[in-house]
Amino acid sequence: MPRRSSGPKLWYDKARDRWTISDGKSKRRTSCRRHEIRAAEKELQIYIAEKHTVDNSSTAIADILMAYIDEVITGKVSEKTSLSALKPLNKWWGDKFLVDVNVASCRAYAKSRGTAQPSARTEMAYLRAALRHWNKNHAPIVIPELTMPPKSPARCRVLTRSEAAAFLWAARRSPHIARFFILGWYTGSRKSVMLNLRWPMIDLKTRVLRRKPIGAVETKKRAPPIPIGDRLYAHLKRWKRLDGKRDLVIYFPGRSQENAIKQNDRGWHKARKAAELSEDVTPHVLRHTRATEMLKQGVPIWDVAKFLGMTVALVESTYGHSIPGWLNNAAQAR
């Protein structure tokens, strides 16, 4: 009885001083010498992928995206956000096939998104994830190399205390915007966290603020519980006394809470404009400002990372220049 083939493998041909891919009776020569084993292994991987790959021209992008939505996105905490990113993808790529994905089509898609280049990069990342999911769970394919739009330059706008005072004065007739600002200034929480904050998540006795309800699913955007500092504690006590049995901490009087983010953005824009602050002062600036202020005041970098739900590496790379004495020894070296 003939022995079962062990599959493609590398074989070193001493006479040629080259690695060769051996697949039963079939041989494929490579240009890799003995010391170039990593390159030879990569060629072996490509050979195996080509051998077990279906015809890309028959695979519709629409099918790939729908499978990813049904089997990965549906039911996740980030479902709504993910679907909004997949919508323009499906609109542009939906009538195309896998064979149509190349450098030119990727650049054409990015161009079609106009000024929304950061969004285009995120959307292309979803397409790449969908392709990998299809390859792993449906039919093996040669995953094309996607040409991604360039990364946006890092923005780290920080508010000064005089700018903060100007904003709060401009928001004095909009208590929900003032609350949002104060919460962001002292906690550095993300916008969605603050707009979903409820009084049962705040324990004024133990002075602990939970950014997520008990039992909430954890996501990549970490939101750990934090202690409540003295200044924020004074504000929270006063707000609780005013709110009584109201559930939400940031409440939009006379309006639906379903569009809280849009309403908050409108109120923020109005206050920012009245305070004569630049357009780069967005709600996320409060998170940057909190990280910077803590580091300036000598809070250890690992405490800053835990407080904000970031990694130490991210805090160091983004806000490290705010640490007192940052690289001072290096700068003073002769």
Sum this structure up briefly.
With 334 residues, this protein is mostly helical. The chain has helices at 37-51, 61-73, 79-93, 103-112, 117-137, 161-170, 175-187, 191-195, 230-243, 260-274, 285-296, 301-308, 312-319, 328-332, and strands at 9-13, 18-23, 26-29, 202-203, 208-209, 226-227.
How does this model look, in words?
- This protein has helices at 37-51, 61-73, 79-93, 103-112, 117-137, 161-170, 175-187, 191-195, 230-243, 260-274, 285-296, 301-308, 312-319, 328-332; strands at residues 9-13, 18-23, 26-29, 202-203, 208-209, 226-227.
- With 334 residues, it is mainly alpha-helical.
- The strands form two sheets. A three-stranded antiparallel sheet has the order 1-2-3, covered by helices on one side.
- Helix 4 (103-112) packs across helix 5, helix 7 (175-187) packs across helix 11 and helix 12 (301-308) crosses helix 13.
- It is elongated, with a radius of gyration of 27 Å.
What structural class do you assign from the helix and strand content?
A: mainly alpha
Query: What share of residues are in beta strands?
Result: 5-15%
**Relative helix content:** 40-55%
Shape: elongated
CATH architecture of the largest domain: Orthogonal Bundle
Provide the gyration radius in Å: 27 Å
Unreliable stretches (pLDDT < 50, length at least 5) are none
The CATH topology assignment of the largest domain is hpI Integrase, Chain A
